[in-house]
Write a structure and sequence with these properties.
- The protein has about 220 residues and is mainly α.
- It has one domain.
- It contains ten helices and five strands, in the order βααααααααααββββ.
- It has a three-stranded antiparallel beta sheet, with no helix packed on it. Strands 1-5 form a two-stranded antiparallel ribbon.
- Helix 4 crosses helix 8.
- The longest helix has 26 residues.
- The relative contact order is 0.13.
- The N terminus is likely disordered.
Length: about 220
């Protein structure tokens, strides 16, 4: 086996452009389905449009570009409110769907070693789904339970983004994120990273250090 590797510079701009286009496509598709849904007075008359709206929204929130925006970049109060309102509306739509409908769009990941590593997998999900009526709309509480027990990469990414948005809202109201507040209560130190300025600050002492710059667009090739 040849273990010699060469580091080459990838085209970071193209990756970002592709992400931006996908963001626009998913959001436009989501809004288009919402416009169609608004013409109906009964959710049961627009199931296909409802499912497509949820599918596009989950795909939108799962983009790396969106994750970075919510988890690392500064957000104004107006942006945080807009993020939160969009998330809550998407969750309302998701709550109108049944577990079976969610499963048809986001199949259980075919991973079977969860017990070994203490995490969710196919078997865990199948067992937990026995607690649900697969043909009954989830509702708000049922949706949270479903997302907690279900193992799918897209829904996992959606759940992670949801926590970031909720934490941002909490921070806008209290000055601290949810995890930051928990760490403070437990006596655990926290740090704030400013990617734009290239610094990391100790939230307890106020000390500032420079971040080492590691280009994310480098690739290793054999």
């Amino acid at each position: 086996m040849n273990n010699n590797f060469t580091v080459v510079s990838g085209d970071k701009g193209k990756v970002q452009d592709k992400q931006a286009k996908r963001e626009q496509l998913y959001m436009k598709a989501f809004v288009r389905e919402l416009d169609t849904i608004s013409a109906y007075s009964d959710w049961n008359q627009c199931r296909d449009h409802l499912k497509r709206a949820v599918f596009y929204a989950v795909k939108y929130f799962g983009l790396e570009r969106i994750d970075r925006r919510h988890s690392t970049e500064p957000r104004t109060v107006e942006q945080v409110n807009a993020d939160f309102n969009l998330l809550e509306y998407v969750k309302i739509l998701m709550g109108r769907l049944t577990p079976r409908e969610m499963m048809s769009m986001f199949p259980i990941e075919k991973e079977y070693d969860g017990e070994e590593f203490g995490c969710k997998d196919y078997f865990f999900t199948v067992e937990k789904l026995k607690d649900f009526d697969l043909d009954k709309p989830l509702g708000e509480e049922g949706l949270e339970d479903f997302l907690w027990c279900y193992w799918n990469d897209d829904l996992f990414a959606f759940d992670v983004i949801s926590m970031s948005i909720i934490s941002n809202m909490y921070k806008a109201q209290t000055g601290k994120g949810i995890l930051e507040k928990w760490c403070e209560d437990q006596g655990i130190g926290t740090y704030t990273i400013n990617q734009e300025k290239g610094i990391i600050q100790d939230n307890q002492t106020g000390e500032i250090h420079k971040l080492s710059k590691k280009p994310s667009h480098l690739k290793i090739v054999k």
